[in-house]
Automatic annotation (TrEMBL), chains A, B:
DNA-binding region, residue range(s): 39-58
GO molecular function, one term: transcription cis-regulatory region binding
Ranges in a coiled coil: none
Keywords for this protein: DNA-binding, Transcription, Transcription regulation
Protein's name in the database: TetR/AcrR family transcriptional regulator
Amino acid sequence: MSSPRTTARSGPGRPGYDLDSLLSVAVKVFNEKGYEGTSMEALAQRLGITKSSIYHHVSGKEELLDLALGRALNGLFGVTTELEVTSGRYIDRLEHLVRRSVRVLATELPYVTLLLRVRGNSAVERRALARRREFDEIVTRLVTAAVEEGDLRPDIDPALISRLMFGMVNSITEWYRPRGDTSVDQLADAVAHMTFDGLRTRVR
Amino acid sequence: MSSPRTTARSGPGRPGYDLDSLLSVAVKVFNEKGYEGTSMEALAQRLGITKSSIYHHVSGKEELLDLALGRALNGLFGVTTELEVTSGRYIDRLEHLVRRSVRVLATELPYVTLLLRVRGNSAVERRALARRREFDEIVTRLVTAAVEEGDLRPDIDPALISRLMFGMVNSITEWYRPRGDTSVDQLADAVAHMTFDGLRTRVR
């Protein structure tokens, strides 16, 4: 997404903040106050460092956003190239993709939360939206192929299935808290069972 | 939610805006710019009227928010008291609630969109959040009862089912456009089929 900044990454920086921990705090503040509503000044105050210490790591607020969205997107796209998503029956590929996406959401929660709030107000945001659409298209293609293999019901439009399924997956960012009552595995099981097998115990 | 303002509703106002049409524009602007980010000045400009013309109808921005959130909540709570949700097998009540909620979302789209973005920054917002939780509890009770009647799978926590199911339903506000390719009935069918019956064509 952005060019590597080897000097900044390996440079001394202020004690306590490397690029990763800086990014982690920035994303937290973006999610709380909104990206637009967060100034570099406010970010520096929250970090307890000067603005120039932040500029030591990144060129500005937009690069922080770019890095944060890239982290969420790389997590999700990483899933699409896993062996279980690129071979086997399409329904199994799709189920694997859904389960692994739930895991990415839960482990990269603040980054994915930020990604899902992006509305396209800048070039960085529009690029992220384009990659989200690309991800949706991968899902829709898997759904279409699974319908063609006869494993998924053919009476719902594959694009609609893809939207609703990931609507459910993405909604997890609204309430999920790691170290809460629900484990990531329970969450992935619940989503997979509901969408693939349904909640009903008996066939009508 | 707010006390009736009979005089304002029936008063003369400026040509072209009664309270309903004023509210409809206000909600559109709140969704575009964010409620916090919208000033009464900006609202007046968008409406092409003076601020005092708005004050003729409502006491201020917060009353507009209150009325808008009330409209979304009344739509959703209206569903919970329908005959089909208050009698019969619990799985059928739940399915009816889900289908009718999809319809409320689609027909009151901007109002529900605004409701789903509320974060609790004021008394009005916190009251709306409390009513959302009340709605979630109604759903969870229906799920629990349907599990007890043996119609719903017992291996997923009812509160989790309720969250994921309405996560899917609410996600519709992210992309649905009335007069698009998908009708409200198709949407309700898709959600009900996916969550109750599942997408898989054969039992594993």
